[in-house]
Design a protein that fits this description.
- The protein has 1 helix and 23 strands.
- It is mainly beta.
- The longest helix is centred in the last third of the chain and has 10 residues.
- The chain is elongated.
Length: 317
């Protein structure tokens, strides 16, 4: 039996469509809003070669709205700063997700990565602790594929239309960061060059190796969208709804779940990928669902009655 060194062993969630993946489809009911503002500072098509110029594919506005595979390319070390109509808040589970336009190419997926930072004041930014277990002894070529299970907390971990989720709890508390009032999300392209002169490093001090060089107009991380899962508008709205409109308990649960709402309401349950896993009409004001055989993870209970829709997040343990 061949034993792989630790750096080559799968460490994290795998690519979209595989068991254990955290990829979130753009159609997931988890998303309550999308970025409404985007400012891009382009990087070079190829760091160290100024003669071929800067990345130029797409425009800033391609980074706003729902993920649609219309992207803006950052170039080597380029930066995109996103803003929102309602600030992001920190609740249980992931709070937002970033979409890129990776694609399948044997044996894995062509991915281009970016660091993710957040700020509540636009001055102090705090980076998610990203980790790369991709070996850095040989440079990933221009069209190399990457194993998503070796990557954690980088934007661009998943293919097009599948967002990489980020949980604000992963960032250490700081007096300059109001985790319940995130006004800015900043994406910084990972250059991907393992040469110490140009390399960028993960939170553990490892050089981050991703496809390089990409001397094209579409060089570097290609931003598609940032989807919001928790924001102030919906957080406040849910507080005002009260338990008479929708109540789910116990939460978290390892067995049954009780859903309480108006009789006649349509109840649907979705997983993180946006796939509907259950649907029924409440015959009475209370229904009990057996989740015993469901996969561990986060689900969303969506109840529609009359012209209103209510959503609650649940955790299956």
């Amino acid at each position: 039996m061949t034993v792989l060194p630790l750096s080559l062993m799968a460490q994290f969630a795998p690519e979209a469509g595989l068991s254990g993946s955290t990829a979130m489809h753009a159609d997931s009911s988890a998303f309550v809003a999308w970025a409404t503002g985007c400012t891009v500072e382009r990087g070079l098509q190829q760091i160290g070669n100024e003669g071929i110029g800067f990345a130029s594919y797409g425009k800033d506005a391609d980074g706003i709205g729902k993920a649609d595979n219309m992207v803006v390319s950052l170039g080597d070390g380029g930066v995109a700063t996103l803003t929102f109509s309602s600030n992001i808040v920190n609740e249980a589970g992931p709070d937002f997700a970033v979409f890129e336009n990776g694609f399948h190419s044997t044996p894995h997926v062509f991915l281009e990565l970016a660091f993710v930072e957040v700020s509540s004041d636009g001055e102090h930014f705090f980076r998610f602790p990203a980790v790369s277990k991709v070996p850095a002894d040989t440079q990933c070529g221009s069209f190399a594929t990457m194993d998503a299970s070796l990557i954690h907390n980088f934007a661009g971990k998943y293919e097009a239309f599948y967002g990489t989720p980020f949980d604000i709890d992963d960032i250490e508390d700081d007096a300059f960061l109001d985790k319940n009032n995130i006004a800015y999300v900043r994406l910084i392209d990972v250059v991907g060059n393992i040469d110490s002169e140009y390399a960028t490093y993960d939170s553990e001090g490892n050089p981050v190796n991703d496809p390089w060089p990409t001397p094209f107009a579409s060089s570097g991380f290609d931003l598609d969208a940032v989807g919001v899962i928790h924001d102030l508008a919906h957080h406040n709205g849910l507080n005002e709804i009260g338990h008479d409109a929708l109540s789910v308990y116990p939460n978290p649960t390892s067995g049954s779940l009780t859903v309480c709402s108006r009789a006649g309401s349509l109840c649907e349950i979705y997983d993180l990928l946006g796939q509907k896993v259950n649907a029924f009409v409440l015959d009475a004001e209370k229904a009990i669902i057996d989740l015993g055989n469901w996969d561990v993870g986060i689900y969303f209970v969506r109840v529609a009655n009359h012209d209103k829709v209510y959503v609650e997040r649940i955790m299956k343990q």
